[in-house]
Amino acid sequence: MRVTYFVAFLLLAHVPKIGSTPVGKKAGIHKQNMRDQHREVLTSLVVPLVEGNFSSFINSERHSLVEFYAPWCGHCKKLAPIWHEFAFQVSQDPLLSLNVQVGKIDGDSEKELAEKYNIASFPTILHFPKRDRPSMYEAERTVEAFMKYVARLAKPPTMQRIYAFDLLAREFYNAAGDTAKQEEVMGRANRTAQHFGKSQKVAAEMYVKLMERALAKSGGAQSYFDEEAERVERLILTKLPAEKTRELLLRRALVSSFMTEVAAPGIQMPVPQRAEGDEAESDLDDEEAERAEAGVEEGGQEPAAKDEL
């Protein structure tokens, strides 16, 4: 009997208790899960391409950077985490994400596309501009180098800066406290806006709209522009449709024109694309804004036809 009790005691002593996983092991599992989730997010931001979706991808309204790779390619494996991190950095920048997209295609499987674009080695990165011929990316293969390359591509549709309105904006701002003077400046701005064509009318009318809102602000024009600059900056960082983000980028530039010294003629500024017949107002109203805020090492190459040793 004593032997039986002793054996039972030994067996129970070695049965792991519920919830008895060591704290260190739990932490290790948690960290691994976090790393896996982060890796999945990064991977999902690079669009996998095949023959069926390749054409629509490169013919979109954005610049497309495409990596041609092969599963057996060692340099491709080395580039993969860099490419994924680059796609993540693009997704975090409102202006970049409007103008740049990142993809990858297995050139070993999609041989016809690889041959069409003269892919002789892996990895090869091609830049497909909007409605233009592709070119090969030949700079360093680091996240920093990729970001520097696409920064110059991220310019939204532009127009020549309306120098006359910059002058009026600054005159309006400097007349803070003199309502009669500000109304007179706004009247001139409104009359001037009628003489601009469609390509510049969006911006011209937005100058006037900002003046109207500033006059209606109980705290005065300067208080309005301070608060508006902060609000617009906050909204730009939220996930809004591309068209709204373009409008906010324009709005930020115009708000800045009231608050800073007048720039020299010829400086470029972003302008949202507006279909004919759309209303002139090109900003988010207060309710829409509130809803939005609430939601809110260099690699080498390997020959394309060569198997990895």
UniProtKB/TrEMBL annotation:
Taxonomic lineage from the root: Eukaryota, Viridiplantae, Chlorophyta, Pyramimonadophyceae, Pyramimonadales
Enzyme Commission designation: 5.3.4.1
Region (Disordered): 267-309
Catalyzed reaction equations: Catalyzes the rearrangement of -S-S- bonds in proteins
Protein name: protein disulfide-isomerase
A GO CC term attached to the entry: endoplasmic reticulum
A Pfam family assignment: Thioredoxin
PANTHER family reported in the protein's UniProt record: PROTEIN DISULFIDE-ISOMERASE C17H9.14C, PROTEIN DISULFIDE-ISOMERASE C17H9.14C-RELATED
CDD domains reported for this sequence: PDI_a_family
Signal peptide: 1-20
Entry-linked SUPFAM superfamilies: ERP29 C domain-like, Thioredoxin-like
Keywords in alphabetical order: Disulfide bond, Isomerase, Redox-active center, Signal
Gene3D superfamilies per record: Endoplasmic reticulum resident protein 29, C-terminal domain, Glutaredoxin
A GO term, aspect molecular function: protein disulfide isomerase activity
Protein family membership: Belongs to the protein disulfide isomerase family.
